[in-house]
């Protein structure tokens, strides 16, 4: 028992510098978000401050149109996730249950799309959306996010589908159920956990995306959260740092909590999707 | 009819990926061969002129060089931190759950937000990094971290490492948890020390996972815009520009679409090489794993 204790102390000692560096930005965020405005540019710089100014949050909400950006982010992330799932479920089912010509080819194609980052394609995408009149339209983000998250979603679902025994569906067929009925009533309910996890990861990816949102959304009422917060920092002579940090706290903390709760599923999904 | 069912199930996702990811590549290829007016209008065929212009541009070569440095140091630094961290997290100790949650935390925060927070933390006058370092007595004057390109670039590389650790640790943890326990027990019986276990058992068995982590990180880091864009926008005086930031400026600030498209295509080529490398690594891993399945059956 005491061996485990010494080992634990040693490990924590080794991890402590990293832990400090990881938690440092969170500390910066909170401490700046809640201090009074005139204590932000003090000299010499200090962590201390005189009082908790919670009104910074409500002030920021009104002044920076945080609510609008929040709604945009929710709209884009929810719809992108829904579309990605809707397209990925049949594809993953086919990959998991059928043998067909071109399956390996499709797998590699998905891998390619997974590796393509939006930044390499951003000019082409911008011209595409321009031609379709979708610049400054949140739906352009919906489709692009859905497309960029397809590969990962399909993999994750496929690896889970593989673990659902075929016998269940076959038994349903023998009992006279059509393929469609067995799919909807037997298979899909069993696959709900995997769909939830895949959905949440697509949601977080869409929530955090920057390059495409920065490029395709040109007017401030269409900004999603990352762009809205960036816009308060970039190219401004005077930055209201307490508002910016209050914004990052609100945009970050809920996602971080959900993520912390889900990270073990991610380890599994990675091992199945990316590594194998 | 039966045969077409799986194809029908795949077609919607295929069309979507083709339209959003496939088509822009064709459009980039087209744009890169066009002459572009000052207002961003394509005015006619230019052949290889855009590529020639890119290759004759000193800023391109500087950015390419910096992209190499950026990618190399972020990937190597990340691996150097993540490997011991993954080994620790794979072991049993008090508070492991908490340690895992903390180390994965940067992953959940968007790169943009992280970069915005660091930009403020590094502020030359009132930044809290200066406050901290002055409190412990490492510096006695605030430092303007982002004002000179060389310091800014180093700081950006460090932030890049920090945000890449969770993903890399995850992959390595996946590898470690699949490690056969009896090999260690046998080694322990034979009296192998901790270092020898690491050197002759862990490291060789981990090699495929390390390779995959390296290739995936190269792809992601090579492509990463937000950290540098938010912290310095490639400045001061183009001193922290890498290919992606340079490309973005060309396309959306200076309207040099032809040149930007040419750089995009060059980057696409590099990515293609690394993706093929990744496919080769993964399929080699699958071949290695195949006999296992046969044994079971």
The radius of gyration computed from the alpha-carbon positions of chain B, rounded to a whole number of angstroms, is 24 Å
How much beta of chain B, percentage-wise? under 5%
Major sheet summary line of chain B: 2 strands, antiparallel
Give me the strand/helix succession of chain A.
Answer: HHHHHHHHHHHH
Q: Which structural class best describes the helix and strand composition of chain A?
A: mainly alpha
Name the beta content range of chain A. Answer: under 5%
Q: Roughly what percent helix of chain B?
A: over 70%
Keywords (chain A): Cell membrane, Membrane, Sugar transport, Transmembrane, Transmembrane helix, Transport
Subcellular location (chain A): Cell membrane
Protein name (chain A): Maltose/maltodextrin transport system permease protein MalG
Membrane topology (chain A): Multi-pass membrane protein
Can you offer a commentary on this structure?
The complex is a heterodimer of chains A (276) and B (297). Chain A is mostly helical and 276 residues long. Chain A has a single domain, classed as MetI-like (MetI-like fold), CATH 1.10.3720.10. In chain A, 76% of the residues lie in helices and 0% in strands. In chain A, helix 6 packs antiparallel against helix 9, helix 6 packs parallel to helix 12 and helix 7 packs antiparallel against helix 8. Chain B has twelve helices and two strands. Helix content of chain B is 76%, strand content 2%. Chain B is globular, with a radius of gyration of 24 Å. With 297 residues, chain B is mostly helical. In chain B, helix 3 packs parallel to helix 7, helix 9 runs antiparallel to helix 12 and helix 11 packs across helix 12. The C terminus of chain B is likely disordered. The relative contact order of chain B is 0.13. At the A-B interface, helix 1, helix 3, helix 4, helix 5 and helix 6 of A face helix 1, helix 3, helix 4, helix 5 and helix 6 of B.
What topology emerges from the helices and strands here?
The complex is a heterodimer of chains A (276) and B (297).
Chain A: H1 2-33, H2 55-63, H3 66-97, H4 103-115, H5 118-131, H6 138-162, H7 166-174, H8 179-190, H9 192-208, H10 211-216, H11 225-231, H12 241-275
Helix pairs in contact in A: 1-12, 2-12, 3-6, 3-9, 4-6, 6-9, 6-12, 7-8
Chain B: H1 4-32, E1 34-36, E2 42-45, H2 49-55, H3 58-90, H4 96-108, H5 111-121, H6 128-136, H7 149-177, H8 181-189, H9 194-222, H10 226-231, H11 243-252, H12 257-296
Antiparallel strand pairs in B: 1-2
Function (chain A): Part of the ABC transporter complex MalEFGK involved in maltose/maltodextrin import. Probably responsible for the translocation of the substrate across the membrane.
Domain ABC transmembrane type-1 (chain A): 70-262
Family (chain A): Belongs to the binding-protein-dependent transport system permease family. MalFG subfamily.
């Amino acid at each position: 028992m005491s061996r485990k204790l010494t080992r634990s102390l040693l490990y924590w000692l080794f991890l402590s510098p990293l832990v400090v560096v990881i938690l440092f930005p969170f500390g910066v965020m909170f401490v700046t978000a809640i201090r009074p405005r005139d204590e932000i540019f003090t000299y010499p710089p200090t962590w201390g401050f005189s009082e908790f100014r919670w009104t910074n949050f409500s002030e920021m909400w009104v002044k920076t149109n945080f609510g609008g950006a929040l709604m945009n982010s929710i709209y884009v992330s929810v719809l992108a996730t829904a579309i990605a799932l809707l397209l990925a479920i049949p594809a993953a089912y086919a990959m998991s249950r059928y043998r067909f010509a071109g399956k390996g080819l499709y797998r590699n194609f998905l891998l390619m799309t997974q590796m393509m980052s939006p930044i390499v394609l951003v000019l082409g995408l911008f011209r595409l959306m321009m031609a379709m009149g979708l610049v400054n339209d949140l739906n352009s983000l919906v489709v692009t996010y859905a497309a960029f998250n397809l590969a990962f979603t399909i993999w994750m679902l496929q690896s889970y589908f593989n673990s659902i025994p075929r016998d269940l569906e076959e038994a349903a067929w023998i009992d006279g159920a059509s393929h469609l009925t067995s799919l909807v009533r037997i298979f899909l309910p069993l696959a709900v956990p995997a769909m939830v996890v895949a959905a949440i990861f697509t949601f977080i990816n869409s929530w955090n995306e920057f390059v495409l949102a920065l490029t395709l959304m040109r007017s401030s009422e269409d900004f999603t959260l990352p762009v809205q917060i960036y816009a308060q920092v970039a190219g401004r002579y005077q930055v209201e740092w307490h508002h910016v940090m209050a914004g990052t706290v609100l945009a970050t903390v809920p996602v971080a909590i959900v993520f912390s709760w889900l990270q073990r599923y991610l380890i599994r999904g990675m091992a199945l999707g990316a590594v194998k | 009819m039966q045969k077409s069912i799986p194809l029908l199930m795949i077609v919607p996702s295929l069309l979507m990926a083709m339209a959003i990811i496939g088509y822009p590549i064709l459009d980039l290829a087209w744009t890169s061969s066009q002459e572009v007016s000052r207002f961003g209008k394509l005015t006619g065929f230019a052949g290889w002129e855009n590529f020639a212009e890119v290759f004759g541009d000193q800023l391109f070569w500087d950015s390419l060089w910096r992209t190499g440095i950026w990618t190399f140091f972020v990937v190597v630094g990340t691996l150097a931190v993540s490997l011991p961290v993954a080994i620790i997290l794979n072991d049993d100790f008090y508070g492991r759950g908490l340690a895992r949650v903390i180390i994965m935390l940067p992953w959940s925060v968007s790169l943009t937000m992280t970069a915005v927070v660091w930009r403020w933390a590094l502020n030359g006058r009132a930044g809290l990094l200066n406050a901290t370092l002055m409190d412990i007595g490492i510096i006695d004057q605030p430092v303007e971290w982002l004002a000179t390109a060389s310091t800014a670039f180093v700081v950006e590389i460090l932030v890049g490492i920090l945000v890449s650790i969770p993903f890399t640790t995850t992959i390595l943890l996946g590898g470690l948890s699949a490690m056969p326990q009896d090999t260690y027990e046998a080694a322990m019986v034979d009296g192998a020390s901790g270092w020898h276990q690491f050197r002759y058992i862990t490291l060789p068995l981990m090699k495929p996972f390390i390779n995959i982590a390296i290739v995936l990180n190269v792809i992601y880091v090579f492509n990463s815009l937000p950290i540098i864009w938010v912290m310095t926008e490639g400045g001061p005086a183009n001193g922290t520009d890498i290919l992606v930031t340079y490309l973005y400026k060309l396309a959306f600030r200076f309207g040099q679409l032809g040149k930007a498209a040419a750089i995009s295509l060059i980057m696409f080529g590099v990515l293609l090489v690394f993706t093929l490398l990744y496919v080769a690594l993964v399929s080699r891993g699958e071949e290695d794993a195949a006999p296992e399945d046969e044994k079971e059956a």
